[in-house]
Specification:
Mean pLDDT: 92
Strand order of the largest sheet: 3-2-1-4-5-6-9
Low-confidence stretches: 1-8
Helix content: 25-40%
Number of strands: 9
Largest sheet: 7 strands, parallel
Oligomer: single chain
Number of helices: 9
């Protein structure tokens, strides 16, 4: 029996750090069906019924206010994103990525564990890997060899999560997502894949908002089991696994892409 079949579904109060951004806005309505949602962000959430704490993940005071009384967190913060095939960067890209993906994350996790908040999900990216690959064979063996500053800092973020799992007994699941899309954009790119990507990388396997939400919900359940664990998992709308080995997503989270079936039916 896999851990995915053993999990018990429970209602949680979940903090979305950076929850007013693109991915957070995609998944919030799905999360609200099962959990209470609070958002920490500089911008207000796009959905109603969400508790809002205005502030930055680099502000300890805002973090302390946001983490009070929550059961789990989802880290969704992103600034200056890049693909995993470029070395282009400037001082703004460097500063913003390190401020949120490293300093902000470390500060957040340190304060969170201090109040007993030890279970959460970290939004990573397939851009932690060099994207000029034909196949991503295994999360635990594939090197974090991105050329981009964004992917580099996201990989460092995974290292910070692993550090807090090892030394502060936190449970964190990192989702290496790729091509997050709302339903309309997902349908468009499934029908007409973008083949002339600016960084020269392969066309993305885009991931629909519903599949993303299912992955986050499954990861929230996964971190309720045990302690001191860090796991990284590929999440991609690649149902035939042409480029991504999704075995770990299946066995650990019980997750497979399903949006294409919803559309076809």
């Amino acid at each position: 029996m896999t851990s995915a079949t053993k999990r018990k579904k429970i209602n949680l109060k979940v903090l979305l750090a950076g929850g007013s951004g693109m991915v957070g806005s995609f998944i919030t309505p799905y999360l609200q069906e099962k959990h209470e949602v609070r958002v920490l962000d500089l911008a207000e959430p796009k959905h109603e019924g969400v508790e809002f704490v205005k502030g930055s993940v680099t502000d300890p005071v805002a973090i302390q206010k946001a983490i009070e009384g929550v059961d789990a967190f989802i880290w969704l913060v992103m600034l200056s994103p890049q693909g995993g095939s470029v070395t282009d960067q400037d001082l703004k890209v460097i500063r913003e990525n390190y401020e949120v993906n490293c300093l902000g994350l470390h500060t957040f996790l340190w304060l969170a564990q201090g109040v007993g908040l030890k279970r959460g999900v970290y939004t990573s990216s397939m851009s932690v890997h060099h994207r000029n690959r034909d196949y991503y064979k295994n999360e635990d063996e594939l090197p974090l060899d991105t050329p981009s500053a964004y992917g580099l800092s996201k990989g460092f973020g995974e290292g910070i999560c692993s550090y807090f799992a090892s030394w502060f007994d936190m449970n964190v699941t990192a989702l290496r997502i790729t091509g997050p899309r709302g339903r309309e954009a997902y349908l468009e790119e499934r029908a007409r894949p973008v083949t002339d990507r600016p960084d020269g990388s392969n066309p993305l396997f885009v991931t629909d908002e519903s599949d993303l939400a299912r992955a986050y919900l499954a990861a929230l359940e996964n971190v309720q089991i045990g302690h001191g664990r860090f796991d990284a998992v590929f999440i991609a709308g690649d149902e035939n696994e042409k480029e991504h080995n999704l075995t770990k997503a299946k066995t650990l989270l019980g997750w497979v892409p399903q949006s294409h079936l919803e559309i076809e039916n």
